[in-house]
Amino acid sequence: MGKYIVKRILLLIPTVLVVCVLTFAMMRMLPGSALDFMVKRLTAAGQNVDVETLRVRLGLDKPAVTQFFIWIGGVMRGDLGNSLFQYESVGGIIARELPVTLELGFLELFWTILFSVPLGLWCAARQDGIPDYTFRVFAIIFMAIPTFLVASVVLVYPAAWWGYAPNIKYAGLFQDFRANMGMFLVPSIIGALAQTGMQLRMVRTCCLETMRTDFVRTAWAKGCGEGRVLVRHVFRNSMIPVVTVIGGSVAGVFGGNVILENLFNIPGVGQQLITALDQRDYTVIQGCVLVMAVIVMLINLIVDICYKWLDPRVELD
Amino acid sequence: MDDNIRGDSILEVRHLRTSFFADGSELRAVDDMSYSVRRGEFCAIIGESGSGKSVSALSVMRLISYPPGFIKGGEIIFDGRDLMGVSDKEMQSIRGSEISMIFQEPGTALNPVMTIGAQIAENIRLHEKGVSRAEAEKRAAELLALVDIPNPETRIRDYPHQFSGGMKQRAMIAMAMSCRPKLLFADEPTTALDVTVQAQVLEQMNDMRRRFGTSLVLITHNLGVVARYADSVKIMYGGRIVESGTTDDIFLSPAHPYTMGLIRAVPRLDLPRSHGLYTIRGEPPDMSATPPDCCPFYYRCPYEYERCRTERPADEEASPGHVCACFRRELAAADWKEAGT
Fold first, then answer.
1. What is the spatial distance between Cα B315 and Cα B180, in angstroms, rounded to a whole number?
2. pLDDT of residue A317
3. Taking CB atoms and an 8 Å cut-off, how many pairs form between chains A and B?
4. Which of A77, A159, A161, B91 is most deeply packed, by most CB within 10 A?
């Protein structure tokens, strides 16, 4: 097991390198460079700018390949460089904002699993009953409505009717739990809606499939009651494909958070990324993408390890 | 004959009818089936695929799920009680403790994510309150030893995929017998196994049956197995029993043309290949299309005449204890005797 994990982590290195090369290349291919934006902004502020001096100061005078190796050399030493626009290191920005994004993402996953798994199992157990139809209809609706639409509606109408708005001042989870939840509760539930709809249908389908297997018939023939059949025999076997899908959706969850963070003004990596993209803040973009990529890969590794725990037939090596 | 057998019957099924409903049509899988099994008896139910053998066993255990299946009527008298009348809760306590079942595919009939020991222990703990987990596992190991699994104390921690097909089926037997049931259904338990393992598994099952005094209903289409082990045989066709009697009755003096066809269809190793294989012409009946008031075998039967198409043959005794439902049984029996097969 330990050997397997080490092997998988070593295999991450080439993948991470590819991610680095791709982000770096794509940023340089975008029309408009960081330099242009900075010159424009400074000129608008009425300052005289010497473009060439600025170019040298930003390190953009060297060929792109050299710039890449300077950056990647830093990355290998654990230094993600400094932001071109803010007086802060990229590492500092990420250390401050990554926990925010992770909290939002994991809260979404938490709601998704909390609602989709038991409800999916229940729908399967009472297939074609009224609750089953109701939940399935809602699942489709949740999947069909784009997150930004729900988020906008939730931001506009409660504010107009009751003067309610989610917190916009960030407080750490352990410093002030109520203020923290005041900020994260609503956006995380909105973010979880589409996922919940999708997973509920997935859980239901997998459970229905498992319920028709021979070993479930054996469980009935042994004299198990319905609860026992569902929990001991159907549930765990159905979770094998469900975990795959949930694991695969993690990347989507973090991607989708970029929009939610912006709409709800949550100071996370997503919001940072949007600002940085606008300004072509190369180092920030590269750093954020790199860190997110590593996190998604680590989560996939955890999912693979979960397989082994869920299904004894899986051989990890 | 086995000295295990006592006179009274453990199971008596009367006029059992189970149907499946799909797309507005009714498939009469079990259609007025009656039979009885005596205590300690080894009884075989023989029939082609689709004749309703498995459904009849699942009906007795009330494991037909609705929809699409439904037990339309009949009585299932098990050990003095009508199972059609007992509550779901009571039925649950009967399943696995008084009536057990072994299934056809050992590869899929065991839960892949539970250890063998845990699955056997579950059966014990479901029906015997107050048995600790450790105690149940110990008994699981003893049961595995009874079915000749080597190193049972360590093998109970194995998962089904670590067992071979024959071992899985033996573990199934151990599980089914863990509460010393009065009645055991074995639904084609050896069909999915290698020929070399089949005899072993059957021997084990028979051994466990004698040890615990269980009545066994073996559902199969393997006549060789039946001839070797069974005390009595029931031939099933089109959802009902068309002939029943002792093993000798059925094999030495069959009375129903279908039974004769089955016996003739057994491949023989002692005849030259030029001899060819015997087949019963036609296809098994489509039980959603066959009308109820006829002999379901008529259109495949060499003795068929007018009456077979319009009337359902009633059970008649060919000899004491040997019952056959055929209008032309005397004619068929005479032919059989003459052919001297």
1. 34
2. 67
3. 69
4. B91
Average pLDDT for runs of 10 along chain B of length 341: 63 90 85 89 88 89 85 88 89 91 90 93 91 91 90 92 90 91 90 82 87 90 84 90 91 89 85 82 80 84 85 86 88 82 55
A214–B108 C-beta distance less than 8 A: yes
Count CA within 13 A, CB hemisphere, residue A242: 30
The pLDDT value given to residue A42 = 82
What's the number of CA atoms in the CB half-sphere (13 Å) around residue B102?
Answer: 33
Residues of A whose CB is below 8 A from B110: 215, 218
The SS3 of residue A295 is: helix
Q: What Rg, from alpha-carbon coordinates, does chain B have?
A: 21
Q: For testing the chain B interface, which of A127, A206, A212, A215 should be mutated: the one with the most B CBs within 10 Å?
A: A215
* CB of A111 closer than 8 Å to CB of A188: yes
Distance CA B158, CA B147 (A): 16
Cis peptide before B67 (omega within 30 of 0): yes
Q: Which residues of chain B make contact with A220, given a CB cutoff of 8 A? A: 63, 95
The three-state secondary structure class of B212 is helix
- Mark the ranges of chain A whose per-residue pLDDT is less than 50: none
pLDDT at B27: 85
Please list, residue by residue across B269-293, b when 16 or more beta carbons sit within 10 angstroms of its beta carbon and e when fewer do. eeeeeeeeeeebeeebbebeebeee
- Dihedral class, residue B62 (left if φ above 0, else alpha if ψ from -120 to 50, else beta): left
A236: tokens are: 């765990």
pLDDT at B1: 44
Distances in Å between the alpha carbon of A224 and those of A206, B91, B230?
20, 10, 31
Contact status, residue A34 vs residue A82, Cβ threshold 8 Å? no
With b for 16 or more beta-carbon neighbours within 10 A and e for fewer, the A60-87 pattern comes to beeeeeebbeebeebbeeeebbbbbbbe
What local confidence, expressed as pLDDT, does residue B341 receive? Answer: 55
The full length of chain A comes to 317
Nearest to A222 among B122, B159, B161 (CB): B122
Between CA A302 and CA A309 the distance in angstroms is: 11
CA within 13 Å, CB half, B108: 10
Taking the C-alpha atoms of residue A207 and residue A116, their distance in angstroms, rounded to an integer, is 12
pTM above 0.95, yes or no: no
Name the minimum distance, in Å, from the CA of A205 to any CA of chain B.
18
Determine, for residues B111 and A218 on separate chains, whether the beta-carbon distance falls below 8 Å.
yes
Q: Of A292, A290, A261, A293, which Cα lies nearest the Cα of A274?
A: A261
Tell me the chain A residues in contact with residue B92 when contact means C-beta distances shorter than 8 Å.
Answer: 223-225
| Residue B31, pLDDT score | 87
CA atoms in the 13 A half-sphere facing the CB of B119: 31
Quote the pLDDT of residue B6: 54
Residue A272 near residue A91, CB atoms below 8 Å: no
**Residues of chain A that touch chain B, judged by Cβ-Cβ distance less than 8 Å:** 213-215, 217-225, 228, 232-233, 236-237, 310-313
SS (H, E, C) A58-103: HCCCCCHHHHHHHHHHHHHCCCCCECCCCCCEHHHHHHHHHHHHHH
Amino acid (1-letter code) at residue A239:
M
Going by C-beta distance under 8 Å and a sequence separation of 6 or more, which residues neighbour residue A219?
A: A228, A229, A232, A233, B111
